[in-house]
C-alpha cells in the first residue's frame, strides 16, 4: 500500500508551470540603443568643440609669435621683439633677384640692409625675422657662383673657421647646379637661438634634386646669424625626397 508520501511525482505540464520570464537587458532594448547613440553624439560634440577651441589659438604650423613691450634691439632698429611662438602661417614676401638668386624680403621682417656690402643683413628679432635671415643665407650659400668675397653670415668664436668650411662644402655640393628655395620647416625657437630646416631644389641639366639645409641660428649683436659658438659647423646637409612637411616658400 502506497502512502501519499511514497507516490511517484509527475513533472507538471507546461500549462501548469509556464516558462519563466527572463529580465531583459536595458542596453539591448530600443531605448538603450538610443541612449548609447546619444552618449556617443555628445562625446563627439565635446571633442569637436575642444579641437576648434584649440585651433582658434593655434594653427597647423604652431602658435603665432608673441611680441614683448621692450624696444627693438635690431642693429638697424627694425620691427619689434618676439621671444616666443613660431612662424605660424607663411608670411608674405617680396622676392628680389640678387646676383642671379631670388631671395625673399619684407619691410616688416627684413632685411633692413639688402646688399650694399655684399650680403643681406638686419632682420627683426622674431621667428619670421629669423626665417628671412635663414632664407637669405641659404639662398646665397647654395649658389656659389653669386658670391663676391667672403660671406659674413656667422657669429661666434669659430665664425671664420665655419665660414671657410661652409664655403668649401657648398661649393662642392652646389657648384654644378642652379638652386632655388622651395620650403621651410621651423624646428625650434627660443628667442635667442633657433633651428630651421630650409628645403632647396637644385636643377642640373635634366636632373632635379632636393636638399635639406638645417641651420642653427643665433641672435648676436642685433641680428640673426648662423651659430658658430660650437666647434662643429652649425649647418647640416641631407638629401630630401620631397617637400612633405615643409611650408611652401619660393619665388
Automatic annotation (TrEMBL):
<protein>
    <recommendedName>
        <fullName>DUF8175 domain-containing protein</fullName>
    </recommendedName>
</protein>
<feature type="region of interest" description="Disordered">
    <location>
        <begin position="1"/>
        <end position="24"/>
    </location>
</feature>
<dbReference type="InterPro" id="IPR058488">
    <property type="entry name" value="DUF8175"/>
</dbReference>
<keyword id="KW-0472">Membrane</keyword>
<dbReference type="Pfam" id="PF26526">
    <property type="entry name" value="DUF8175"/>
</dbReference>
<keyword id="KW-0812">Transmembrane</keyword>
<feature type="transmembrane region" description="Helical">
    <location>
        <begin position="32"/>
        <end position="52"/>
    </location>
</feature>
<feature type="domain" description="DUF8175">
    <location>
        <begin position="68"/>
        <end position="246"/>
    </location>
</feature>
<feature type="compositionally biased region" description="Low complexity">
    <location>
        <begin position="9"/>
        <end position="20"/>
    </location>
</feature>
<keyword id="KW-1133">Transmembrane helix</keyword>
